[in-house]
Amino acid sequence: MRPTTLARLALAGSRTDTLRVVLTAASAALATLLFVLAAAVATIPHLGDSSGGSETWARQYRLQVLVEPGLRPGVIMALALLTIPVLALAGQCGRLGAPARDRRLATIRLAGATPGQAVLVAAAETGVASGLGSVAGLALYLVGRRVLHRPDADGRLLLPTDVVPPAWALVAIVLGLPLLATGVAALLLRRVAFTPYGIARQVRRRSPRVWVGLLMGIGVALVGSGQAVARWAPDLPDWVLPVQFFAGVLAGTCGLVFGTGWISAATGRVLLRFGRGPAALLAARRLMADPWSGSRVFAVLLVGVLFGAGAAGLRAHIMTIMAVEADSNRWSAQAQGEQYLPDGRADFHATAFTLVDGVVAVAVGLSAAAMLVAVAEGIVSRRRAYASLVATGVPRRVLARAALLQALAPAVPAVVLALTVGGALARAFGDEARSGGYDNTICVGGDWSACEEPGSTKLVEVWVPEFVRATPVPFAHLALLGAGTLAAVALTVAVGLLFLRPATDLTELRAV
Amino acid sequence: MPHVLLGLLSTGPKHGYDLKRSHDEHLPRARPVAFAQVYTTLGRLVRDGFAAEAGHDRAGGPERTSYEITGSGRAELAGWLDQVDPPAPFVTSTLLAKVTVALLVDDAERARAYLTAQRQAHTARLRELTAAKTDADAAFADVIGADYAIAHLDADLRWLTTTLERVATLGGDQK
Amino acid sequence: MIIEGRSLVRSYGATPALRGVSVAVDEGEILAVTGPSGCGKSTLLHCLAGIMRPDGGEVIYRDQRVSDLSEAARARLRRTDFGVLFQFGQLVMELTAAENVALPLLLAGTGRREARTAALSWLDRLGVRDLADQRPGEVSGGQQQRVALARALVTEPRVLFADEPTGALDTLAGEQVLGHLTRLAREQGTTVILVTHDARVAGYADRELCLRDGRVDASGLGLVSEAAR
């Protein structure tokens, strides 16, 4: 097959196909932008030696996370992680209008293409689309760099627009991303065997197992036992604890991701048992019939919630540490007869966590947008049955309620679970903060030059009482996160339901 | 006709009256056969050695002769069944003839009236046969007989429609 | 007379589908609506069933002007008084056969147990009781249509609208569906409006209404007299 033939076949199609190509390209552009931005942050030159003092700060930026070199890896990580929901969005977009594309591929097979060629045609579409998207993303970055390069009154920049990542990095991103997307597309198509007479999709029938719950438990246990291990075996090498912690988070996250199908199926069973009315029946049966539908996006959404909950827990913990240290500092200041002046550390941490919250919100929003595609596809692919039901007098609101239930019923327990696991992982770090409980030399009056004179009576040894604060469970924060996520899901379904009216248009019955 | 009687005899000896009844029962949609025809045919079968007299009985009535199939009769029957019938070598149908003539005659109104009436007759018969076929008491022979007739009526109707469309298209082309 | 369409007109954009069709159907009658594809027969069925509102003319069902009712009221009417059977694809693939049949009853507020009992009895009458807990994807096309017929009849409708109900089936499977349909309709006194392009299917009806180019074709052969033109 010549490349021109391949391109012609890959880009042939209807309006839905065009929409899919455009969305794929847009996601690729967004992902490219994020990667290039991450590369740009990595390119910010290191100043001074590596002692970490303020002389290494890149003071030309407004954002503290860019100024301090120690914080930049976190920014790079966050940007890279943000590409995950973007890529999930791209993956879901790939399913848009897929039945029509699958039929087209079947006819291509009928015309004599080998199975491999059919997959190639499908994957090539993704490749071409994401390639164009990547180039567009790069162009967007180059234009944006000039447009946003506006120093404020202090001569500081919002973004690292003063540096350009090395050319090899840009080439690697622009070439690598489409290749990755094509590979993933081919991988996802492995389940679809294109035959000349139609599509045999091997649906995952296997019911999700309970071991996923175990995985989540192991995750929490690994993280939770960290401190105990450190106390009992203080001679362990340095790397053990971080590895244990990372493994724990990974196990918890994997449990959640693999658990989405199980949660869907279980919710379906419960709904079937206790639900009332036809909407509940429809939703329950659909959840049970295909618990994995849309699970990719759902998983990304839940991972977002999990990280959000973890961040909320960590924030509460660090704020408690800050508070308890403030307690002992305040006590010391009082003992010295000085005015207590809080340092800026708490504020700094709060700002950092607010940034994390922002990232989580964007990730959840993006995944919700990807869910929209899943909801819309679910409706469109069932349009004949839906139109028939409407013809027999089923009110559209019953179908709408079924779709809403189908999305929200598993989302509620899953989000609660993600909040619990995330919160528990953070809590495993520590559930209380202590400070004080030691002898300290203080200088009454605070005039150290006077105190340091030999024989000064103002220099006294005092016992700083121990201050203990339990880390509060950040219920309000978690509730906000959970409610926000569910609201995003509900909003998504509500938007998706706009497809219901055209899909149940009775002219659908005419199309044979 | 002789082969149908041979086929009926192949299930066991029968006398003339039995044969007539059996024939009408198995071919309910065919034209009923006359006694005279049964006896003439039987005579010819005996003459050719395909059937033979099997015995006489007098069950409370006039004496009746029953007949049975012979070895050569079975061979003849098998030969007939094996023979492939030439698929419609000549089209001989009153319908075809009438429609052709109706289209030739330059009286559109009359042709229209004839064709409409003919179609109505066809559909009425089709409904009748469908009713007979779906009757709960319908025997297997009734069903397959009705199926045969329905298929032919359906073919006639489709041919009629296509022919008229063809005529309409031709007329349009000429204009 | 139970349902009547008077001078029905309906177009799709600039394409006229019905150009003034009048039809009256008696209670318990089985009417076949025939004609070549694109003649407007499905559109007529959709208008009569209140699925679609005609652009002109009116539909009267038992002294009620269906064409004037709101969409909600027509949906209610379709649910309570009408049954609909299409060519294919009307069953919800995720639900079992019994649940599909029970669906209209559940919508009407019947309890789950009661609805299932009724569904099973209808599946039994159609000879597919064994398939009650199978999903539509697991049974043959003819069996699917029988389940769909059970769903259309479970509410004991007064009028059953069937649009090419055997269009996707082979002759014998189609014959079984039609046999059940006409037998049950006659038992229940249900009026049937049966849309088909097949003369053999129309043979199951009491009467035939032939359409051509959106008009009633009395000859059934597209013959329009010079006077009528």
Features:
heterotrimer, A: 512 residues, mainly alpha, two-stranded antiparallel ribbon, 18 helices, 6 strands, C: 229 residues, alpha/beta, Rossmann fold, six-stranded mixed β-sheet, four-stranded antiparallel β-sheet, 7 helices, 24% strand, globular
The order of strands across the largest sheet of chain C is: 6-7-8-3-9-10
Q: Biggest interface pair, residues each? A: A-C, 26 and 38 residues
Low-confidence stretches of chain C: none
- From the alpha carbons, calculate the radius of gyration of chain C and give it in angstroms: 18 Å
What is the 3D shape of chain A? globular
Question: Alpha-carbon distance between the termini of chain C?
Answer: 30 Å
Order of helices and strands of chain C: EEEHEEHEHHHEHEHEE
Q: Helix share of residues of chain C? A: 25-40%
CATH topology of the domain at 1-81 and 191-229 in chain C: Rossmann fold
Q: Which CATH class of the domain at 1-81 and 191-229 in chain C applies here?
A: Alpha Beta
Structural class of chain A: mainly alpha
Q: Please give the share of residues in helix of chain A.
A: 55-70%
Pfam family, one (chain C): ABC_tran
Keywords (chain C): ATP-binding, Nucleotide-binding, Transport
Organism (chain C): Luedemannella flava
GO molecular function (chain C): ATP binding
